[in-house]
Amino acid sequence: MENKIKLAMELHTISDEYVGASYNVDRSFKEAKSHAAEVNLLCTYAPNDEYGSEADMPYIAVQEDDDVFCAIDDFKIKGTFEKAVEITALKGQYLFKAKMEYYGDMMYFYGFEKKDVYFTQAGLCMVYPKEYVGTEDEKILMKVLDEAAESFRNI
Q1: pLDDT, position 55
Q2: Whole-structure pTM over 0.90, yes or no?
Q3: Strand, coil or helix: what is 119?
């Protein structure tokens, strides 16, 4: 099966001064506007477009929704959470990285907490179709998020 995900192999920065955060990501992911209050710094896979679209997938975003918030709460108490398909505890700015099913799709994300900034408990998330599980495309997407997580900063 041929890969659906083709990277530009060049980085650009997704940032939001109001949110006060940024990260670097491959140029095949383009900034998109989200109308959901719990989705920030959204960019979608749109290699041939100038901008991403809120409805496109795969996408990267900082999310504060109940699934992410509860995963972080449970992790702090139990060292895992119920929906985790994979989970790795981390040190530093992230508590863990994990994979879970997410509204019929998959989410690979880094859970974190921040005090005195826009986010309290959130995840830097990559959401992608379940059909990518176990494929080279999933590996590519996970690497893209790993690199974005390394560059994630408060601005």
Answers
A1: 86
A2: yes
A3: coil
